[in-house]
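Notes from the 1:1 (GR / supervisor)

We went over the backlog. Supervisor wanted to see one worked example end to end before approving the batch request, so GR pasted a single chain during the call. The sequence is below; no edits were made to it. Supervisor asked that the structure be written out right there so they could see what the output format looks like.
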Amino acid sequence: MLVIKREGVVLLRLLLVFAGLLFLPQVAMAEEIILGLTGTERGIYAVLVFIVAYGFVMAEEFTGLRKSKPVIFAAAVIWAHAAILATEAGVTTAELHEAFEFNLKEYAALMLFLLVAMTYINAMAERNVFEALRSWMIRKQFNYKQLFWVTGIITFFLSSVADNLTSALLVGAVVMAVGKGNDKFVSIGLVNLVVAANAGGAFSPFGDITTLMVWQAGYAEFFDFFALFIPSVVNYVIPACFMYMAVPDDKPETSGKEEVVLLKPGAIQVCALFLLTIVSAVSFKQFLHLPPFMGMMLGMSVLMIYGYSINKLYTNEEFDVFNEVRDAEWDTLFFFFGVVFAVGGLGYIGYLELLSGAMYDGLGDTTANILVGVISAIVDNIPVMFAVLNMSLDMDLYQWLLVTLTAGTGGSLLSVGSAAGVALMGQSKHKYTFFSHIKWTPVIALGYAASIFTHYLVNA
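Structure output shown during the call:
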């Protein structure tokens, strides 16, 4: 879950989302941590700063400006205006700090959790786990139709423990390697991977940042999310069945020169430690009632100690966990910082309360949660979900699982709707494009609707 380069038209749509909020009258809020000063010039200016910053995020592909930079700047400016508004409204420094520190705690917990997960993924990559998997798939010499299902299913389950970006890039390399010379298969195969990666991440707290956010916020327990497994399968299988009929019924030409990639020492053990770290995170929350990131940090320490033992046992090996920490997706982690504080600042001024009233009070929980998924295809699901979590909504477990499903899978509707789609567009060298994806949007939307209906049948 990760973000996202957009085309210019998306900025216009984002402007439309906020346009109705800019000139709404000031609303008095019951909670002390919300100022209710949305009608002020400073409040409107804060929204405009966020829109401009997110415009730069969407233009990252063209400007080369990392997405974290504009949102961190926006977060600082928004909170500066929020602080001035709070002072003018007579809010005490202690109350202002309480609102600010709430966002700090939210970010710290998620950042540490994600940092450990990223470190483990990097460690497995360094030990050749993913390269060995890629090599095996190429050497099996599947035909195109077999490869379509094999790559899709592997991506679906892999994205439940790794993020959708890693899963899509890993398996996408296989699709492009064996589909060389058949652009039609590569195009359809990569659309299939995007749908599979987003669907697979929806039913596991480790599969998508938005799912992780809902879990850490306490709106659902760890095992509650597995109730979304069948809806997630439906979300993937329905469009995949339609796409399968267009897959060429040929066998790719192979040179037979693909070398066997051997796992480095400790590769299997690192994978096992990652699974134990997941168990540790769940146990810390379920039994000790401590934040899951503490269990993840325990797993990080074990990985560090095991890395030390690898270097001692194998003198020709050099395995330093701090190298994997260094190679974490820091741009994403800092982007997440900017999003949390920018959206949190707008929420403190009162805009999330207005948005909540417009969507959830005006449309109802179910319609609003379905709309969240559609918005996630246009605006990245991280700020959308963080906004939802900070609306203080009174929803039952069914509705929280619904918004988890829609926010996680809605990004499949467009190629620019998820990190997986954007990354594959860049990796595919114009074989997979916005337009090659959008022609499958109707059947992806059918899967999206069917997964929501399945969620109703299974979990209501």
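Supervisor's comment: Residues 162 and 207 are 6 Å apart (CA to CA).
Batch request approved.
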